[in-house]
Amino acid sequence: MHGIVGSHDGHIDVQSGVNEGTTFTIYLPAMTPRSDSPPDTSTPSSTIGHGEVILVVEDDPNARQALQESLELLNYVPLTAGSGRQALEVLERRQADVALVLSDLVMPDLGGMALIRAMRERGIHTAVVLMTGHPLEQSLDDLRESRVIDLISKPISLDRLAQVVARGLRDG
Fold first, then answer.
1. What's the DSSP call for residue 47?
2. Which of 36, 121, 132, 167 has its CA 20 to 30 A from that of 84?
């Protein structure tokens, strides 16, 4: 829950009292009310998918679900993995189907860079977009040598996700 709320620029307040229970209050930014005007079409059609399969590798289940739902909204077909090892298993079975890997950089067991090395060792050359919520210690130029298309900071807006995935599919 915390990951989803945080990815929408919100926060959670918790109040608890003995024999009173616990109250969770979720605060999200206000939305602009809908009008009778046509829907916003600011996302160019070039950033909307055509059913391409995207493998999401994210250890946080809430963030993974949010990314999956966002990709579905953008007309992609997401596959999900909760770790780098699970991602390798998916790629072993579905490599020909996966058009792009969208992976967290920092994960226990097998992080994004280790996943890329393991993919390359297995002859899997699918393009990768890395995500991180941590300060970057490597330059993007260093990452490009491993066919990393982009490195994006979390939380990721829907527009930014659309742009990065479209570029990854085009340039990958």
1. G
2. 167
Give the integer Cα–Cα distance in Å for 30 and 152. 25
Per-residue pLDDT, 28: 78
**Structural tokens at position 124:** 């899997």
Q: pLDDT at residue 21 above 50?
A: yes
- Domains (range + CATH), the chain: 49-171 (3.40.50.2300)
For the entire predicted model, the pTM comes to 0.71
Q: Give, in degrees to the nearest 5, the angle at Cα 10 between 8 and 16.
A: 140
- Cis, bond preceding 155 (omega within 30 deg of 0): yes
Which SS3 state, helix, strand or coil, does residue 31 take? coil
Question: Is residue 127 a contact partner of residue 147, using CB atoms and an 8 Å limit?
Answer: yes
Q: How many C-beta atoms surround the C-beta of residue 2 within 10 A?
A: 13
- Angle at which helices 61-73 and 158-171 pack, to 10 degrees? 70
Handedness of CA 65, 6, 26, 33 (dihedral sign): negative
Q: With H, G, I as helix, E, B as strand and everything else as coil, classify residue 7.
A: helix
In the block, tokens 């979390």 appear at 154
31 to 3, 8, 9, 151, 155: CA distances (angstroms): 19, 11, 12, 28, 18
